[in-house]
Design goal:
Layout lengths: L6 H16 L4 E5 L2 H17 L17 E4 L2 E7 L3 H4 L6 E5 L14 H8 L7 E5 L9 E3 L6 E3 L10 H7 L4 E6 L6 E2 L6 E2 L6 H7 L1 E3 L6 E2 L4 H6 L2 E3 L4 E2 L5 E2 L10 E2 L10 H14 L2 H12 L12 H5 L2 E2 L12 E8 L3 E9 L5 E10 L5 H12 L7 E7 L14 H8 L4 E7 L6 E5 L14 E6 H11 L10 E4 L4 H6 L3 E5 L5 E5 L5 H15 L28 H4 L1
Helix pairs in contact: 6-8, 8-9, 13-15
Amino acid sequence: MGSQMGKTDGCQLNVIGHRLDDDPAPVLYIGPTRSIVEKSIEPRIVAMFKSCSLWERTARGKGSTKTHKRVAGVTLRLAWAGSASELAADPAAIVLLDELDRMDMDVKGEGSPFEMAEARAFTYPDGRIIVTSTPKLGTVEEVTDEETGLAHWKVADPEDVQSPIWQLWQEGTRYEWAWPCPECGEYFIPRFSLLKWPEDCTPQQALKKAALACPHCGSLIEDGRKAEMNARGMYVAPGQKVLPDGTVEGEIEASDTLSFWVSGLASPWRTFGQRARSYLDAERSGDPERIKSVVNTGFGELYNAKGEAKAWESVADLREQYRFDEMPDGVRLLTCGVDVQKDRLIYSIRGWGINYESWLIRHGELWGETEHDFVWTELDKVLSTPIDKRFIRLTLVDSGYRPGDPWRRPDNQIYTFCRRRAGNVVPSKGHDKQDRPYRSSRIDITVDGKLVKAGLQIWHIDTDYFKTWLHARYEWPPDQPGGFHLPVDATDDYCMQLTAEAKVAKPSGQTLWVRLRRANHYFDCEVLNVSAAHILQVHLLRPPEQKEEPKDDVKVSKAPRRNWTKKW
């Protein structure tokens, strides 16, 4: 649901109080940040305890801290998503995650907060995980059930949804809050698409004139009818129908997860007009972040970024009649980009020619825990093996995933691997903006804190510059050198990942890259390939010198040809 609709007090805190009072068992509450937990949640829990008999059963003194309380003989622990030790501390009969979409989905590289929370409840046969959040990014559609007449959210491809709470919701029963129309009596599910206001009206005018359109009879419902609609509201899952008397009939798909969605329009504290005005104000600002905030918090819906996105099919059309590990004419040197994840390494190898024309030579994934040696040994084999008698000239490895401190953690796998293959394998770090497209720095220091001149070098990459550069190559004129080529066996997944991000312009003139799909690893790999090509100054490549046709009675001396392969 949206923000300020009772998720924390009405659901999470009441569940905590009820369990501690009715059937005491350890409870774990997890918030997005330590500051929120200590400054907002803990005082509200104490206030709740003081308002009922639980305060008399709460231990005082050393037995109680801000994040650890003893109530009715059991433990109530308050934790936050940024601390793996807090999340893995104690087992609990009930684990509550509040605002999941605002949490880091990989806590210190040990997994998502949901996975870690789920493990806390395994000890108890009746263990439960309760998750609430305002959703964020994703692309979903509405689909109308012909039998029930209700429009539900369609189950989206997980790759099209970046919101963890939405992914969990669509894995469950998918209940949605439905209202009866005051005019025709038919039930419908309120959502942003049904909110109407006069065309070309100002935000202030929308405040007074906005209304909700019934999808059945078309009547405009004013905000004053909201209370009676909420009083008769019902949760309805796909396949179910609400009869005029309020009875719900129909079967739902079996699931061990109960999931519910409520539109922000149902909030008793905000009117239809206020929701409309907030959206129009955000739209007029042109700031995608502001629009996203209104759609997420105001309506409880996913925000679909509308930027300079490429259709993945257009990238798939770039596939040509050559195959992996074949070397097309025009390839002069090879680069490799490696994206590092917890459970695998993703890589792509690209060949480069004149005017930055490039050919994908191979892409793949090497599965294995990247904190161990095995997967890095496999990568070493890939980089050490020549392709059509050519070796990879430069490999950039993304060090943004748990790089650790290169001095305090010498066992760090990324830096250790780059040190072992120093010269043609180097770590890289992406930045949203910097003064140059790429620059290098040394990261090894002595015990005195001085840089080691011959130490490990890292390349800093302007990701906005190279992402923009890469997107432009997708639509390169086919009759001009500089195209972006793919082999016939490049997978659809690879093509989708190359269009996983879109560029959005902000009113300030700055740009923002937003993810349209969850997986974008190959896109990151190709950004690294483009960066490597610029570091190698591929723009200096020239065509092989042409031999002149000898003229009659003229002695032609043969000039030595430049060995570009050796030079590059």
